[in-house]
Each structure stands twice: as structure tokens, then as C-alpha cells.
Amino acid sequence: MSVVSHSTDSPSPTDSPSPIDLHSPSDSKWLRRIDDIAKRIGNRLNPILIKETRQALKSRQFVATFSSLLFAALAWTVGGSLSMMPQIYTSPSATRMLIGYYLVLAVPMLLVVPLAAYRSLENEIDDGTLELLSITTLSPWQIVLGKLASAMLQMLLYFVALFPCVAYAYTLRGVDFPTTMLIIGSLLVSGIVLTIAALFFSPIARTRGGRIGTLLMVMVILIASQVGLGAMNVTLILDGNPMSAPDTILVVSSVIAVAVALGHLLLTATAAQLTPESENRSTAIRVSLLLLTAVLTGVVVLLTHGGGGRIVQSDSPFLDAVLVFLALGGTFWLFAGAMMVAESEVLTPRIRRELPSSFAARMTLTYLTPGPTTGLVFACLGGLAFTAFGLYQLDLLIQESRSRLVLGGLPGFRRAFLAASVYAVGLLVLVRWVMWVIRRRNTPRVEVGLAGLVSVMVLTALVPYSIGLHLNDYRAYNYSKWQLTNWAWTTGECFQGNVSAREVVWSVGFLSGLGLAVTLLCKPKLAFPRRIATPKRVLEEQRRLANAK
User: Fold this and answer.
1) How do residues 400-409 score in pLDDT, each as one tens digit?
2) Model pTM?
3) Which of 93, 409, 423, 518 is deepest in the core (most CB within 10 A)?
């Protein structure tokens, strides 16, 4: 019997099965395509957004906040559901659960994210990395938008994490879908606006004491917004939306329009603070202020007519909103004018080369250019134009409804609005002269104009009152015409109808106009700055850069 021997030779290395080639054309062609697309998208995105997102998602602050959010949502889901047993199966229970979820989401949205954005931009300034970014091709707008986009991405992650909980609360019945969307939308819009405001305050102060004061101011704004918005949304959850669908759409559209315009103004001001002083930092802010004024006027017109053809009645909820927006617009013009008149009188050659040259352009665009005198004229013209518009709208409301509200109602508000506008011109003239005295030996920033405005307002109100108090042996006394320089007392008397607004306009308006004329005549070159020719070497450099692009 023969024995059949089988070969037991070991296989050679060449005979072993080869591993899968991940880089073979057949298997990775689509991967390469996706990678190329991702690279192109990444190159087009803001580099600050990519850097900030990577740092934020890896930071302890985000990890701790996100973990706390998930733990709080889970704890409230379990605890809130058990606390309503067994009624949760038979009766509507969404209100309590939705209030808890709102409070859990509001803390990171309205407090943590804006503070993180504030600290991020402040750290860029403290560490000196902002100076390195300024010599790159990144513009100040890209830096600011990158910070904002990173904060919005964190908000999106918080929303995604808590969305299943909100959906669970909605299924428990008791809160309708439009109200739920209204609450979430108000939280999102408020979070974005507060983040923009926090970014605006970041570069204002440069000293340690100033930064502490700025941080405290930001904290006060965030906490006040948290409390106010929380009270509004909790009331909305418990009582429902009292407005009809058309009125709700009108209010939501108005709020979003004002929020967008206000956010654009604050972002423009933040980018201007990061722009070198040799460049034009004023024109964009003034154009943005005009945009905000246009939005406010449009919103006031819509609210005055209630979204339809009839003027709103005195008992309409839109009436209070009209008065608030008119007061808000006048306040913006006053504060913005105080910073405009605090600008430097020196215009760099780069700015003067960009000034309008033709007669038509100089007549229309001169007051958009930097400078304290042009800023004074721009603020006075813009503020008075907004005052004229407000008076026209108030006249329409008064003609439609003669009923009076608390403390004088519409006629009293109209008189006070007119008197305050006239006083605002005089206050800006005084701030202009105060800043001129300060700039003789110092180089303050434009934010000092706000401090100058507050000082002038306090002095013009307290000094006349103190003099009258001294003449009356420090006893209470009644209002007299000698208190016309006291803007606070006179405006209050106009509101109550004890003083004629026409008399205030003629007296205070004459003094304010005289001061404005003297200011313009003292330095006429600042009121009408002239353009200078561009050197040939600068033109050649501009052509070279244009060809390189």
C-alpha cells in the first residue's frame, strides 16, 4: 500500500492575501472628491470662525456648560414628569415642563455664550494676537463676524441638544405650536443681540480698571435681559399669546427688523474700534445709524397704522410700542452724536484722499466723513429730522383719539418729545466744546464723549436748580422761567402741560442754534473738509495690488 504524501510547504509572502488598498482609485475616488470639496469650503470660510470653533469646542467652559445642560435637562425630564404623576396622562402638563426647559436653555443662551464671546475678544486684545491679525489680510469685519459665528454655532448646539425635550413638552398638551416657536425665536434673537452687545463692549476699555467696569456693565445688561425676557416668556407660557395672528406677525417682524439694524450698528462700531486710527472709521457707523433710523421710522409707521389703514386707538397695545420706539430713536441719536463730536479734528492723508470732490457729493456726503464738526452737524440734522417725523406721527395719533393717558398722555408726550429734541442740540454743542478743551492736551477716545454728555446733562440740570434753591433759602420752590436751562425740570413741566413747548423751542432753540453757528464759524475748515490729491506712488501701489488680485 502506497502512502500518498501531501505537500505541507508554507505559502510564500507573495501568495498571502493583500490588504485592502484604501487609496486605490476604485475605492477612494469619491473620498478624494469629498475631501477636495471640504478643503475648498474651509478655505472660503472665515479663518477666525474655524479657530474659534476649535478652541470653543475643546474648552473647559463649553464642556462644562454642555454637560450641565444635558444633566439639567435629564434631571428636569425625570423629576418634572414624576412630580405630575398620574395627572400627566389625563390633563395638559406642558406648561410646567416647558418653563423648566426654558430656564435650562436660557442660562447658556443669554449668559454663558455672550460672556464667552466677550472674554474671547478681550483676550485677543490682552494677549496681543489682535495686533498680529491686523497685519494679515483679515479685515476687522472678518474678525468680529468670526467671533459672532462661533458663538452662534454654540447656540445651535445647545438648541439641538434640548430640542427633543421641547418636543416632549409639546406632546404633553397645554401650549400651542405658535407660542412654542415664539418663545424659542425670542430666545434665539435675544441671544444673538446680547452676544453682539458683548462684543461691542470688549474693545472699549484698555486699562484694567476700565475692563472691570465694562465687565460689570455687561453682566448687568445680561442679567437684566435674562430676568426681563424670562418674565415675558413665562407669562406667555402660562397665559398664552393675547394678540391675534396678524398682530403677532407685525410685532415679530418689527422686532426682527430693529434687532437686525441694531446688531448691524453695534457690529459696525465694534469693527471700527479694531480699525487703525489712520483709516476712516466714522462713515460706516453713520451710514449704519441712518439704516437704523430708517428701520425705526418704518416700524413706527406700521405700528401707528396697526398693520392696516386705520390709525391705532389710545387703548391699542401698539401705542406704547410707538412711544418706546420714538424715545429709543431719539436716545440713539443723542448718544451717537456725543461720540461723533468727540472725534479727533486731525484727518490723516489717507482719509482726506477719500473725501468727496464734486459739488454735489460735498453737499450730500460731507457730513458722513470723520470729524467732530461734521459729526455735530450730522447728529443735529438727523436728530431733528427724526423729531419732525415723530411729531407728525404723534399728531396723527392725537387727531385720531383725543383720550388722554397717564401723566398727560399723547399731548404731553408730544410736548416733552419736542422740548427734549431742542435741548439735545444744545447738549451736543456743549459736549463739542468740552471735548475741544480736553483734546488740547490729551488724546481721548470717542467713548469719552459719552462721559462728557453725562457730565453736561448732570450739570445743566443741577446747577440751575441749586442756584434757585440757594436763592429760596434751601426751601422747595415752584418752577420759573429762570429754569429754562434746566432741561430735566423743563421737559417734565412740558409733559405735564405747565410750560408751553413753543416757548421752549423759541428760547432754548435760539440759544442752541446760536451755539451751533458759533461752533461752525470758529473752524469752518472742519465743517467742509477738502480732498487732497493722491500721490503717484500711492496710485502705483494701488494698481500693483489690484493686478495682484
Assistant:
1) 765 444 444 7
2) 0.82
3) 423
